[in-house]
Amino acid sequence: MEYRLALVGFGTVGQGLAEILRDHGPRLLEEFGVSYRITGVSDVRLGSVHDPAGFEPEALLAATRSDRGLAMLEARDEGWDAVQLAEAGEADVLVELSYTDLATGEPATSHVRSALESGKHVVTTNKGPVALHWAELSALAAERGVEIGVEGTVMSGTPTMNLGRNLLRGAGIRAVRGILNGTCNYILTRMEAGSTYDEALAEAQERGYAEADPTGDVEGYDAAGKVVILANVLMGVPLRMADVDRTGISGLTPDDVAEAAAEGARWKLVGSLETVGGPSAGVTARVAPERVPLSHPLAGVGGAVNAVTFTTELLGDVTLVGPGAGRLETGYSVLVDLLEIHRTTALRG
User: Fold this and answer.
1) Which helix (H) or strand (E) holds 312?
2) Alpha carbons 44 and 97: distance in angstroms, whole number
3) What is the reported pLDDT for 20?
4) Cβ distance 34 to 342 under 8 Å?
5) Is it the case that residue 96 has pLDDT exceeding 90?
6) 311 with 173: CB under 8 angstroms?
7) How far is CA 295 from the centre of its chain?
8) Residue 166's CB: how many other CB atoms inside 10 A?
9) Which CATH number fits domain 2-157+328-348: 3.40.50.720, 1.25.40.10, 3.40.190.10, 3.30.200.20?
10) CA dihedral 284, 289, 294, 299 (to 10 degrees)
11) What's the whole-model pTM score?
12) Candidate list 120, 127, 226, 268, residue with the active-site label
C-alpha cells in the first residue's frame, strides 16, 4: 500500500526521514508492504512545492544544498503556505515538523487541525500541539476517523509512546520518571567529570546539543512539555504546563555534584508523574534536579541520552534507554508512527 506524505518543515528531522525513505524504501515494502511518496513540502527557509506525482527523496535532499532551495524542483504547485498544504495537498498523511512553541502551540496546531479537518492522518514531532491542545486534536481525529502519531515528541526515535500506549497499557502505569532532556543530561555528566556549569553549557552549545539561548532546556521547560505529553497521552490526564512544578539545573554547583557523588548518588534532571488518590484521580507532575542513587537505572544514563522508567502494577519498574535527539533518530520516530498508522488502518479493514 502506498501512502502520500505532505511535510511541513524540512530541516533536520524531515531530511532524516527522507534519508530513511531513500535508503530503506525497498526493505519497508518487502517487510511491511508499504511505500511512501512525498507529494508536498513547505519549509520557511527552503520554500514550498506540491505535486501529486511526488518527489524523489534524493531530489529533495539535493534541494537543501542549492541556493534556490525547493524552487530547483519541477512541481505543479509552488508557493503554498503550510496551512494550504495541510488542507489542499494531495496526501494521506501530514508530517508536521515545524518549530516548537510551548506557549501557544502555534503555528503547528493550526497545521495539525487543518489536516485533521480535511481527513488526513497526522504525524508530528512538535511538542506544542500535543502538550497544549491534545484533548481537542485527539477528539477531532476520532471524529474524522484518522490517527495522530506523536512518538517523536518525547524521546525521539526511542519508542516511549508506543511502549506506554500499547505494550504497557494493560500493565497499569502508575508513575513515570525520566531523563527527558539530553542537553541537561550532557551538562550534568560533564560537571561530574569536573567542568563548571558554564564550561559544560559552552561544550553543549559547541556540540549542537544546546541552543544559543539554552533557557528552554536548562530551566526545564522542554522536559515539562514532555511530562505534560506523557500525562495527556499515556495517562489521560489533561495537564497544563502550569501544572508542572518546574526547577532547572542552572543553580547546581560543582560542590553539589561532588557531595552527591560522595554519598553514592548522581544529579539528574528528572521529569516525573505519579498517580494520586487512586488510578483515576489525577497525577502530580514535577521537573527538578534529583540526586538519583547509583543503584537506580537512571543513574547510569550519561551524556545526551534519554531514559524513562515506567512503574506499573503488573510488571513493577520497566526502564527504557535510548537517544533523545538526532537526524536519523527523530526521522525514525516519524517512520514508527507511519507504520503504526498502516497497522491500525489495516485492522480497520
Assistant:
1) strand 305-312
2) 11
3) 98
4) yes
5) yes
6) yes
7) 28
8) 11
9) 3.40.50.720
10) 80
11) 0.94
12) 226
Domains of the chain by residue range: 2-157+328-348, 161-323
Q: Are strands 265-275 and 245-246 parallel, antiparallel or unpaired?
A: unpaired
pLDDT band at 224 (very low <50, low <70, confident <90, very high): very high
- Say if strands 316-323 and 47-55 run parallel, antiparallel, or are unpaired: unpaired
Angle between helices 221-229 and 127-144 (to 10 degrees): 20
Cα–Cα distance, 24 to 328 (Å, whole number): 12
Phi-psi region of 245 (alpha: psi -120 to 50; beta: other; left: phi over 0): beta
User: Is residue 45 over pLDDT 70?
Assistant: yes
Q: What is the mean pLDDT of the chain?
A: 95
Query: Residue 296 in contact with residue 302, Cβ under 8 Å?
Result: no
The answer to whether 48 touches 72, Cβ cutoff 8 Å, is no
What is the band of 180 on the pLDDT scale with cuts at 50, 70, 90?
Answer: very high
Mean pLDDT across the stretch 17-25? 98
Question: First and final CA of the chain: distance in angstroms?
Answer: 13
The answer to whether the bond into 293 is cis (omega within 30° of 0) is no
Does the pLDDT value for residue 277 go beyond 80? no
Q: Which residues contact 30 (CB under 8 A, 6 or more apart)?
A: none
Percent of the chain as helix, strand, coil, to the nearest 5:
45, 25, 30
- Asked if the 161-323 domain carries CATH number 3.30.360.10, the reply is yes
Q: For residues 124 and 149, is the Cβ–Cβ distance under 8 A?
A: yes
Q: What residues form DSSP beta bridges with 175?
A: 274, 311
120 counts as catalytic: no
How far apart CA 23 and CA 43 sit, in angstroms, is 23
Q: Tell me 103's DSSP state.
A: T
DSSP-based three-state secondary structure for 315: coil
Per mean pLDDT, which range of 11-25, 72-86, 107-121, 196-210 is the poorest?
A: 196-210
